[in-house]
């Protein structure tokens, strides 16, 4: 069994790496610590064909595969971690669900700007009382003539301060079969994007409020019964999360490695101390192990969607390996690693957030255990007799 990338995949990765080093290396640290969305970089990435990589060409995509998208995120992140967020936003998450299920009219209205790096789409899924228990959401859509009235609220929506379009999980009726989704445009009467709140990872997210927000029926993405389709797309989204987690762990590893061969203490390079050698050995092993699980899940997507089991294992492994490597890299670099003069502390903060977002590591372990035993385990308490 060959664990190397194919010639075509390697050539693609190399071309993305060259582009990143030529165009994105300068200013990488400044971008990481800026709260502004780098629209100029987004348009540059779009021109390079790095948004919509795995989407059909008829939809304005590049006609590539999930593996190409994973490789692009990794190569960009190894040079400019912040820019990898743009590649993620243009290939995974709500935009992928949109491309999978949107009508031709919806795609015509929104996709050109989204894939051109001119606008963003945000996901409204999590609610104040419905986090991991996403099926308990309360935000509702009630038909009113040819329109729907939306009521409820959402939190923790990535890119919400900048987004112009929101893919919102919605309850049309009772039970799981009553869950679907709608598209809400910024500026819709009754829809308010709240004041941005700052988070540990450096991002700002806004709470979304819906008070009889009126949307036309043509903005329904998936009506009642659409929940399972949405979740299948959400499973694929985990590959973007996993790719960034692993790549930022590698980025921190590379910075710490360079530090270890140039920094001297007690008259010796840091890499000559056995205690630090062991740290690098542990980091490298965990990163390589997680890389194999990520590639396996991505390759499953070459001919369809990867399994929920594979994406759960890939995300868990990459979250934990990336966090371990970045945290150890910070320790190796001491005070410099802890300083915002180096990018390592940024990698630590970013990866820590991804261990919660997109399915917490605890929920992932539950999902993996279900695959082990071939059955579902309800997290709800048993019903009273």
TrEMBL record:
Q: Where is the Acyl-CoA dehydrogenase/oxidase C-terminal domain?
A: 226-372
Q: Does the keyword Flavoprotein apply?
A: yes
Q: Which Pfam families does the UniProt entry name for this protein?
A: Acyl-CoA_dh_1, Acyl-CoA_dh_M, Acyl-CoA_dh_N
Task: Look up the record and name the cofactor or cofactors this protein needs.
Answer: FAD
Do the record's keywords include Transmembrane?
A: no
User: Acyl-CoA dehydrogenase/oxidase N-terminal domain: which residues?
Assistant: 6-117
Key words, A-Z? FAD, Flavoprotein
Q: Which family does it belong to?
A: Belongs to the acyl-CoA dehydrogenase family.
Q: What is the protein named?
A: Acyl-CoA dehydrogenase
State the taxonomy lineage.
Bacteria, Pseudomonadati, Pseudomonadota, Betaproteobacteria, Burkholderiales
